[in-house]
Amino acid sequence: MNAHGINVYGIGAIYRFEMARTFRTITQSIASPVLSTSLYFVVFGAAIGSRMGHVDGVSYAAFIIPGLIMLSLLNESISNASFGIYMPKWAGTIYELLSAPISPIEIVIGYVGAAATKSVMLGVLILITARLFVPYTILHPFWMLCFLLLTAVTFSLFGFIIGLWADDFQKLQVVPLMVVTPLTFLGGAFYSINMLPPLWQKITLFNPVVYLISGFRWSFYGISDVNVVVSAGMTLGFLVLCLVAVWWVFRTGYKLKA
Predict the structure, then answer these.
(1) How many domains does the structure of the chain reveal?
(2) Which of 60, 128, 133, 147 is the Cys-Cys partner for 41 at CB 3.0 to 4.6 Å?
(3) Residue 172's domain spans which residues?
(4) Is 31 part of any domain?
């Protein structure tokens, strides 16, 4: 049953269940975010982009592609992972999961792995959809995939923490709507932070999403607002913080034990 001490069947069961839920609600999970992003391409890319010209040598319509992908990726990673673990809490089946012969790390791998897979699928679909509206190039496809995977895993883990913390459905939406979305819009999704006044450039550097978008945009066009090594380091640092938080939750039973 175990491979090198890891319950692969338990991980697989959680992963398959979560992926099956995605395909049962494919309109909400996949089609809706892709359609919403397509509207951004139409409005910002075609209507506004034709008047904006170029940003850092890249057409505006192409410039916003990494930011739009990140906007969807962050929200969907958090929503998928938080909803996935919140439902067993809400239904009361979390206790059966905790008493099953499966360790906390295996539970995390199953839920976070499924959420990250959905997010990567969505990111790739948006990338394909963007080609219908805007011609673009990817200078560093390997690093683009690395940033895509790293961001999906990190924010799926963050969503998992939110799902454990939330007491009701409203709390599931608080962080994505009130924190992540505003930070993404203010993090250079639709502009280069170099276009801001010097003071605001310094203030913007406290926004963690700036580093995600900057690194991801570098993988496309070789341009970035922040050094790409710093961007990767900040993302890895946030991943480590999330891992520590999850370890603490399972260690103490916070929000898990009645």
Answers:
(1) 1
(2) 133
(3) 8-252
(4) yes
